[in-house]
């Protein structure tokens, strides 16, 4: 089987027209690869175009403040990617004079760049013969070669990387790597792969053994944690509210939210008002409280589900240090908060 030849012929006839495939600029390749981690191209493409327009060079991205970066990233998820992106841009701009490393080993030393991203940049921008292994590659190789080693284990990582390196077209690693990822994304899909018209149908061991749906093998994740959020949406007489910035190492660090009370279960109104956290956050006795949604909003993350209630706390007094509801859309917020604001704010505030 001439693996690379079959793959390349398929790719040249089926590849999508994507902006980062028209350049070898390491800044643009790096940006696209970071954005597309854990993200479908259909979702990531508009963000990529927004970032390139706002920050056409690594110097522009480095000069931005963190809130600008997080606001443009808002809704893309996995916000540590945005923070690492900004940090690396500053390092490249300031310490490396805007020039990205030109090899796999040095690229991998940059913050937020692991084996996959370093391999992609090195091969696409500099023709270094290093194989890329992502979710699409795992799926394609596990099926064609009938590999049952779990892909989310150290043994699996090593086995698939070694195989990808052996198959790699060392004369044109850029095309090969992009072709292999594209083949997994468009043809050898997780569900309903196009097996009847597959260029590898005569060689695919999983197809021969009818094991397509069983591969790749992945060890099940740990149990999903349930969390209970109570957001206090302060509404003062002068049309202002309060926001707080999330700190620490948990989810959404650096993003803004309404004052939050996290509880061990879903709270009823009386339970919320009688809690120490509520009394600490709401010092006034002149307020009314109303739950915005009739049932909790369930926001699902990779390892946790957030059962969220938005409580509108209306005050009779004005706020001296609040934020106008008209300006609230300027702040970077989690998509959970953004969705609430889209329902809560009047049209002329959006």
Automatic annotation (TrEMBL):
Enzyme class, UniProt record, top EC level: hydrolase
Source species, domain of life: Bacteria
The keyword Hydrolase is assigned to this record: yes
Every HhH-GPD domain range: 35-186
GO biological process: base-excision repair; mismatch repair
Family statement drawn from the similarity comment of this UniProt entry: Belongs to the Nth/MutY family.
Protein name: Adenine DNA glycosylase
Annotated source species: Christiangramia fulva
Source lineage: Bacteria, Pseudomonadati, Bacteroidota, Flavobacteriia, Flavobacteriales
Primary gene name: mutY
């Amino acid at each position: 089987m001439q693996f690379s030849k079959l793959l390349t012929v398929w790719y040249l006839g089926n590849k999508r027209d994507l902006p980062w495939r028209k350049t070898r600029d390491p800044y643009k390749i790096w940006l696209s690869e970071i954005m597309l981690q854990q993200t479908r191209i259909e979702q990531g493409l508009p963000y990529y175009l927004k970032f390139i327009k706002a920050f056409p060079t690594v110097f522009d991205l480095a000069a931005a403040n963190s809130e600008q970066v997080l606001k443009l990233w808002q809704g893309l998820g996995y916000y540590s990617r945005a923070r690492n992106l900004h940090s690396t841009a500053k390092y490249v701009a300031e310490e490396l004079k805007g020039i990205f490393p030109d090899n796999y080993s040095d690229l991998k030393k940059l913050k937020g760049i692991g084996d996959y991203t370093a391999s992609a940049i090195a091969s696409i921008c500099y023709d270094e013969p290093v194989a890329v292994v992502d979710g699409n590659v795992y799926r394609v190789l596990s099926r064609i070669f009938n590999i049952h080693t779990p892909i989310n284990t150290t043994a699996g990582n090593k086995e698939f990387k070694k195989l990808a390196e052996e198959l790699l077209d060392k004369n044109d690693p850029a095309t090969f790597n992009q072709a292999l990822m594209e083949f997994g994304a468009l043809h050898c899909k997780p569900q309903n792969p196009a097996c009847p018209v597959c260029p590898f149908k005569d060689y695919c061991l999983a197809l021969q053994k009818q094991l397509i749906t069983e591969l790749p093998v992945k060890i099940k994740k740990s149990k999903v944690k349930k969390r209970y959020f109570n957001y206090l949406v302060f509404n003062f007489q002068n049309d202002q509210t309060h926001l707080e910035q999330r700190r620490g190492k948990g989810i959404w660090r650096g993003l803004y939210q309404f004052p939050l009370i996290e509880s061990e279960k879903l709270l009823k109104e009386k339970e919320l008002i009688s809690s120490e956290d509520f009394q600490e956050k709401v010092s006034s006795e002149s307020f009314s409280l109303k739950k915005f949604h009739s049932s909790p909003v369930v926001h699902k993350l990779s390892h946790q589900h957030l059962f969220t209630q938005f409580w509108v706390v209306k005050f009779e007094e004005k706020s001296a240090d609040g934020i106008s509801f008209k300006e609230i859309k300027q702040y970077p917020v989690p998509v959970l908060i953004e969705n609430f604001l889209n329902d809560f704010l009047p049209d002329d505030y959006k």
